[in-house]
Write a structure and sequence with these properties.
Elements: H1 2-8, H2 17-27, E1 33-36, E2 42-46, E3 55-60, E4 65-71, E5 77-82, E6 94-97, E7 102-107, E8 127-129, H3 135-139, E9 147-150, E10 155-157, E11 161-164, H4 167-179, E12 188-193, H5 201-210, E13 214-223, E14 243-244, H6 255-268, E15 273-274, H7 284-287, E16 296-304, E17 311-314, H8 315-335
Parallel strand pairs: 3-12, 3-13, 13-16, 14-15
Antiparallel strand pairs: 1-2, 2-12, 4-5, 4-9, 6-7, 6-9, 7-8, 10-11, 11-17, 14-16, 16-17
Helix pairs in contact: 1-4, 4-8, 6-8
Length: about 350
């Protein structure tokens, strides 16, 4: 299963090569052409010479993680966070370090010795233990500048859920790869982007290069339908369908575009929900500002515990997101893209 392989692949922002190779292997039989740009985005196309609007669907390859910054004399590794990681979740977690996947554990001062144990230990006071007893021994295995990711296996959880790391946004990557297996009546561009987690960087160059008439971003988004969370602050709910964004910190999709998504869902009986919170952002924040402006919208799969060592999502939400996007693209063939003001 491609999603399982993508989830377990290691690709922190700026080091997406392994993820890109998996995706290229999966989509190459179904596309007309591809290129890897200077940022590292994987840009693919099918039906380039067909009439109709240029449609771009994007999903980012990178995940949150850490970068090794220093090796102590003891052989312990100091690190810096890459992307939005919660310090509360780090101590005691298993990680893989560097291109060889050296196993390690994130450590901190034991609670017995820490007078401030009731507070959260900041990341800059934590370290990664790879079992080395000296700096020289550790340097044979890893070096500063290399990345570490959580060591989490993908798998089923309970009835109808999956668990794994990096669902933000390997979920979107898997959905986009599946979309590329089908044919469309218009030029279809897929953009597997880099460095979303540290500033939506890859999306900016991808959108400029493709110059689409309309763009859709596929994401794994926050889901807080858990005890203690007020209903209005839950963002999304697991098992209630893919989420459509009305507004977030980086983009307000044009109404006609969200209306088309809603119509595609309702016409086919696909459950959907509105993303209730407006914090955070996606690649749409950069795409919609490219060139003279690109109408952009976001469809997301709700995921509990994103940006953590292990997230949970509904299998049905995932499949319904695929159905929704396919329906939207089918309808786009008929309705086209309106001009501003239509």
């Amino acid at each position: 299963m491609l999603l399982a392989r993508l989830s377990e692949a290691r690709g922190v922002s700026g080091d997406e090569g392994a993820v890109r190779e998996l995706l290229l292997e999966a989509v190459r039989p179904h596309i007309d052409a591809y290129r890897i740009d200077g940022m590292g985005n994987l840009l693919v196309v099918k039906g380039k010479d067909k009439p109709g609007p240029r449609v771009m669907v994007a999903a980012h390859m990178d995940e949150v993680g850490v970068m090794i910054t220093r090796i102590e004399k003891s052989g312990l590794l100091r690190f810096a966070k890459v992307g939005g990681l919660d310090d509360r979740l780090l101590p005691g977690k298993r990680v893989r370090v560097g291109p060889d996947g050296v196993p390690g554990v994130i450590g901190s001062k034991p609670i017995h010795l820490d007078r401030k144990a009731s507070s959260v230990t900041p990341a800059d006071e934590l370290y990664i233990d790879i079992g080395a007893t000296s700096r020289e021994e550790a340097e044979k295995l890893v070096r500063p500048g290399q990345y570490a990711t959580f060591d989490t296996a993908f798998g089923e959880l309970g009835q109808g859920c999956w668990k794994g790391k990096a669902f933000d946004d390997r979920v979107g990557c898997a959905l986009l790869a599946a979309l590329l297996e089908e044919d469309y009546d218009f030029p279809f561009y897929g953009a597997f982007t880099v460095q979303e987690e540290i500033g939506l960087r890859g999306a900016a160059t991808a959108a400029y290069a493709i110059a689409p008439d309309v763009a859709l971003v596929l994401e794994g988004t926050t889901c807080a339908d858990i005890p203690g969370a007020d209903e209005h602050g839950q963002s999304t709910r697991l098992g209630h369908g893919p989420a459509i964004t009305a507004m977030d910190r980086t983009v307000i999709p044009p109404r006609w575009l969200t209306d088309r998504l809603v119509a595609a869902a309702e016409r086919r009986g696909i459950p959907y929900q509105w993303k209730r919170t407006t914090f955070g952002g996606t690649d749409a924040g950069r795409i919609h500002q490219a060139r003279a402006g690109i109408p952009s919208a976001v469809v997301s799969v709700p995921c509990r515990y994103i940006h953590s060592p292990c997230a949970v999502m509904s299998q049905q939400d995932y499949h319904d997101a695929a159905r929704l996007v396919r329906g939207f693209l089918e309808d786009l063939s008929e309705g086209g893209v309106p001009r501003h003001g239509d």
